[in-house]
Amino acid sequence: MSNPLRLDHDGGLAVLTIDFPPLNLWGDEMWAALPAALDALAASPPRALLIRAEGRVVSAGVNVQHFQRLDEQSSLVVWQQQLAMLQTLEALPCPTVFAAHALTLTAAFELALGCDVIVAARSASFGLVERRVGLTPSSGGVQRLAALAGANRARDLVLSGDIVDADTMREWGVVTRVYDDEAFDQSARDFALDLAAGPPLGFSATKQLVREFARGGVAAADAVMPALAASLFPTSDAQRALAGFVEHGPRHTAEFEGR
């Protein structure tokens, strides 16, 4: 079985590339490779993670021939494994960025929705089109889209099977940055590299606060914020950055080590 993923490193940035031509379809290969790759990243977290794809599409969806082999029990196992994989991605302490340069359908879009940030090329488009095969998105995409764009928009997109452009997804709050096509790859990498240079402990705390808010609203985040914020002050990163700010002002450059 060929590996549809490639993992490279650019300093503290891990780059996970989907490269399974011609259409980067999800199937047995991807269902096996993604959990393994993310488990490895969880065991040794990078400073930031960029997920991107090669080819003329990010992904044209799932290989429907693989669906034909599934029954209720075997599909239950697949969806449990894929949901656990998405939760592993969400639990990474580092910033995660999904870079969509083109058409991003079904499982690939659901993977993107598990990242902290989705950036897109201006010509990119997105869809959850499982209605065409009588199914519903089953890797966590419906509920995550509803969390970002609202329940009404999530229902509309999934029930209609529409494919939506990057600018609309930005209006909905799903995509946060849209770059021109010609500069997209470099712009997405530069953004991810900037995150990789940031404060790992501060970023991890930010992600924990957002997770608490998602679970229980403002009150849940408020309950953990004071202790979480206070835990950052004795760290070497914070002490060094604060001293640099006092000495050199807001334009100072700090190097963070995650301790």
Automatic annotation (TrEMBL):
Listed GO biological process terms: fatty acid beta-oxidation
Pfam families noted in UniProt: ECH_1
InterPro entries: ClpP/crotonase-like_dom_sf (IPR029045), Enoyl-CoA_hydra/iso (IPR001753)
GO molecular function: catalytic activity
PANTHER family found in the cross-reference section: ENOYL-COA HYDRATASE, MITOCHONDRIAL, ENOYL-COA HYDRATASE-RELATED
Name of the protein: Unannotated protein
Organism: freshwater metagenome
